[in-house]
Amino acid sequence: MISFLQAENISKNYGEKILFDDINIYISEGDHIAVVAKNGTGKSTLLNIIAGKDPCDSGKISYKNDLKIAYLLQDINLDPNKNVIDAVFSQQNEISEILKKYNEIIFQETENSDLQSLLDKIEALNLWDFEAKIKQILGILKITDFDKKISELSGGQQKRVALASVLITEPDLFILDEPTNHLDLAMIEWLEDYLQKSKSAIFMVTHDRYFLDRICNNILELENGKIYSYSGNYSYYIEKRAERLENINANLERSQNLLRKEQEWIKRMPKARTHKSKARIEDFDKIKEKATQFVNNKVLQIGIETSHLGNKVINIFNINKSYGDECLIKDFSYKIAKYEKIGIVGNNGSGKTTFLNILTGTIKQDTGRIEIGSTVKIAYYKQTGIHFHEDDKPIDIIKRVAETIKLKNGKTFNASGFLNYFLFSPLMQTTFVRKLSGGEKRRLYLCSILMQQPNVLILDEPTNDLDIVTLQVLEEFLMEIDASIIIVSHDRFFMDKIVEHIFIFNGKGEIKDFPGNYSQYRNSDFFIEQQNIDNQKETKIKKEKPKAEIQNSKQRKLSFNEQFELKNIECEIVELEERKALLEIEINSGNLPNNELIDKSQEFSEILKLLQNKEFRWIELSEE
Question: What is the average per-residue pLDDT within 120-139?
Fold first, then answer.
C-alpha cells in the first residue's frame, strides 16, 4: 500500500498539560482510522497537527508528494460573506468559476455570447454530472438555497455545508472531526454508505459508535498522552482494550504487592545506607511510580434511588396538534407504563420535540387530554436547556439542585461524588463554567437534571457533544435507574442499549409503535413496508396533475432558466421543510415573547403555502 503520511515522535503540550508525548501515527492508502479519547485530551489538536494546520512541539510529519487532503473541522471556518454554492466550491476554483458564470448567464433574460463556450467547457470537463453530484449531496444534507449567505445559516446548516464541501473534493485523505454532528439518522446512514464506497483514506474523530464500527479498520486510543493502536473496528477495539487493561491491572497488583514489601523494608532499614541499599531505594521509587498508576477501567456502581412511582405514570388520550394546515400529531393515545423505556425517531420537523413539550406541559395539545400520575416526578432535558452563569462552578450548580442523593443501599451520595461519577474531577468541579468545553457544559447540564432524582426522565437529544466514555456512564445510569424514560436521539447505539420499543413519527401526524430497539426496527419488514408506502406516495404526488391542465399541455423544450429551475426546485422544497422544522422548534420552545411567537406562527403558515406552490411548480415543469 502507498504510504500517505508518517507522524513520528510528535508531542504537544498546553502549559503544564501534556496532550500527547512522543507518539507515532502512520496513514496509508485504504486506511480508515478513528481516534478515540475523552473530551479535553487533544483529539482535535491531533487532527489539526496531522492536517498541517498546527505545529507540534517536537517530532516530524512527512507527507506523500502531492497528497490531497480534505479537512472537516469541528469549528466551522466558512467565509460568512460567501453564499452556499461558492463555499462548497471554494476548493475547486476553476470549476467554481465556470459553474458560477453559467448560473449567472441562464438567469439573464437576454442571449449571451459566452454561453456556448461555457457549455463546451462544461461538456469537456463532464461538469453536468459534477454539478448534479454537488446538488445531490446538498439536498441529502437539506441545504438547498445555494444563493443564501453562510452568515444567514444556522450552526447545524453551516456544519453540513462544510461537510458537503469536503465530500465533493474526492481527496486522497479525508480528515473528519465529528462528521455526524447535526445529521439526522437518514443522513448518517447515507454518509456511512458514501464513505464505505469512497476510495479515499480516512482519519477521523467521532463519538458515533455504529459509525465507528462500520467505517473504521483501525482505532487509535489516546490515553494519558500515549497512543494505543487496535487493528480492527470498534467491536474489536472494545474486546482488545479490555484485555489490555486486565493485563495492566494484573501488573499493577504485582507492583503494589512489591511496594508494600519495600515499604516494610524501608521502615526497618538502618540509617547508615550501603551502596546496595541505595540501589534498592532507587528501585523502590520506580516500583512506587508504577504501582500508583491509575487505570479507570470500571465505572462506579452507585445505584441511585428514585422517589416512589405508582402504576399510573402518563396517560395520553386522543391528542392532536397542528400548526396551520400542518398536522404533527393525529389522534394519538398511549399509556406510559411504570419503568418503561421508550425511544422516539423521525425526521426533523416530524413533531418529536412538540410531543415532549406536550407531555411536560410546555405547550398545550389542540384536543385530547394528558393525565399525569400523582407520584410522578418529571425531569426534562431540553436541547436548548443550558443556561449557566459563566462565573459559576460545577459543584455550586449541582449543590443548588441537591446537596446529596439517596442510594438504593440506604446510604447517601454527595454532590461532589455525583459529579465525579460523571467524570468531573475535583479540579474540574471548582473550575469556572466559562472554562468548560461545549461537551463539558452539556455534561454538567445532564448532571443537574439527573441530580433531581426523577422517576420519569424525558430526554431530548441527550447524547449531543458527549464523548464515548461519558455516553457509557450515562447508559449505565439509565439502565440502572428505576424510572420511566422517554428519549429522542440520533445515536443509534445509545438507543439500542436503552430503549425497549420505539415511537416512529412520520411527519404527517401518524405515530407508530414498534416493539423493539432502533436496529430491530431498521431491519424489520415494518420499516421496509413503510419506506415503500412513502415512495409510492411521493411518486403519486409527482405524477398527479389536474385533468384540464393535462388536456391543454403541450410538449416543448424547456428554456435554460426552466432547466435550472427544475434541477433545483426539489432541493428548494427540502430547504423549506428544514426551515419549517426550525420554526416548529422555536415555537415550541416556550421561550419566545408573545410578539415573536405571533411572527413565527405567521411565517410558519407562509412556509406551508410556499411549499405547496413549489410542489405544484415541480409537477408543471416535470410534465413539460
Answer: 73
Question: Is the Cβ–Cβ distance between 346 and 375 less than 8 Å?
Answer: no
Burial class (CB in 10 A: 0-12, 13-18, 19+), 479: exposed
- What is the value of pTM for the model shown? 0.70
pLDDT of residue 614: 77
Q: Which residue has the higher pLDDT, 287 or 89?
A: 89
What count of other Cβ atoms lies within 10 Å of the Cβ of residue 488?
Answer: 23
Residue 173 has pLDDT above 90, yes or no: yes
Report the alpha-carbon distance of residue 392 to residue 539 in Å, rounded.
55
Beta bridge partners of 284: none
- Written as nine digits, the cell of 9 is 515522535
What are 438-461's pLDDT values in tens digits? Answer: 778 888 999 999 999 899 999 998
Q: Each residue of 266-297: b (16+ CB within 10 Å) or e?
A: eeeeeeeeeeeeeeeeeebeebeeebeeeeee
- The answer to whether 608 touches 324, Cβ cutoff 8 Å, is yes
Give Cβ neighbours of residue 392 (< 8 Å, ≥ 6 apart): 432, 433
Give CA–CA dist 393/206, Å, rounded.
Answer: 28
Residue 66: burial class (beta carbons within 10 Å; 0-12, 13-18, 19+): exposed
Mean pLDDT lowest among 12-16, 85-89, 206-210, 297-301: 297-301
Q: Does domain 3-85+141-237 have CATH number 3.40.50.300?
A: yes
DSSP-derived pairing of the beta strands 501-505 and 58-63? unpaired
Please list the residues that pair with 12 across neighbouring strands: 20
Question: For 57, which DSSP code?
Answer: S
3-class secondary structure, 388 = coil
**H/E segment holding residue 329:** strand 326-336
Q: Find the radius of gyration of the CA atoms of the chain.
A: 29
Q: What CATH code is assigned to 314-526? A: 3.40.50.300
Q: Which of 341, 344, 378, 348 is nearest to 362 (CA)?
A: 378
3-85+141-237 and 314-526 share one fold: yes
Domain ranges of the chain: 3-85+141-237, 243-291, 314-526, 544-623
pLDDT at 445: 92
Query: What is the sign, positive or negative, of the torsion defined by CA atoms of 139, 143, 145, 149?
Result: negative
Most distant CA atoms of the chain, gap in Å: 113
- Rounded CA-CA distance 242/128 in Å is 51
C-alpha cell at 504: 416512529
Where do the DSSP E strands lie in 360-505?
367-372, 378-381, 404-406, 412-414, 456-460, 484-488, 501-505
Task: Report d(CA 319, CA 175) in Å as an integer.
Answer: 47
- Give the span between the Cα atoms of 547 and 361, in whole angstroms: 47
